[in-house]
Amino acid sequence: MERSVVLGLFVGDKRITLYQFALLMIYVCCAGWDERHADYAIADISDRELSNVVGLKKDKVGHNRRILEAKGHIALLKGKNRQYRIRIKHPDLFFIKKTGKVSGNEPTVSEYGDTQQV
Predict the structure, then answer these.
(1) Residue 66 lies in a domain
(2) What is the pLDDT of residues 38-64, one digit of tens each?
(3) Distance separating alpha carbons of residues 7 and 69, to the nearest angstrom
C-alpha cells in the first residue's frame, strides 16, 4: 500500500481512528480485486461478521462504517437482506503497481539463511 494513503488517513478532514482504519483494511482485504469482475473493489461482509473479527459490538461496527462513508473512504451499495456491500473508493490508491526492478536493490535474505528460531 502506498505510504501517502496510510498517512492521509490520519491527517486532515479525512482523518480516521484506529478502529476505522482496521475496519477499512478489512474491507480492502475482503474486496474483490480482479478488474474484470463486476465486484471489483467491493467487499461483501456484514457488520455481524466484522464484529466477530474486530471484537466490537455490531452497532459500533455500523457506526464506524458510516463514518468511513461520510469521510469518503467507502460507498455503501444495497445488498441482500438489508445488508450493505462496501465499495472501496479510489481502489487504485491501495496497491502500488509494479513498474520493474529497482536498480541496486538485490535480495540479501539468502546470504543470512533462515532467521526463524525453533
Answers:
(1) yes
(2) 899 999 988 888 888 878 799 999 999
(3) 18
| Nearest partner of 65 among 32, 93, 88, 39, judged by Cα | 88
Helix axes 47-54, 58-70, angle to 10 degrees: 110
**φ, ψ at 106 (rounded to 5°):** -90, 145
Residue 113 lies in a domain: no
Contact 54, 26 (CB under 8 A): yes
User: Does any domain span residue 43?
Assistant: yes
Q: Compute the distance between CA of residue 28 and CA of residue 86 in angstroms, rounded to an integer.
A: 9
pLDDT, position 55: 83
Report residue 88 as a C-alpha cell.
472501496
- pLDDT of res. 65: 93
| Residue-range definition of the domain harbouring residue 11 | 3-91
Number of domains, the chain: 1
Q: Which position has the grid cell 496497491?
A: 95
Model pTM score:
0.74
Query: How many CB atoms neighbour CB 108 within 10 A?
Result: 7
Predicted confidence (pLDDT) per residue in 79-98, tens digit: 777 778 999 998 887 776 65
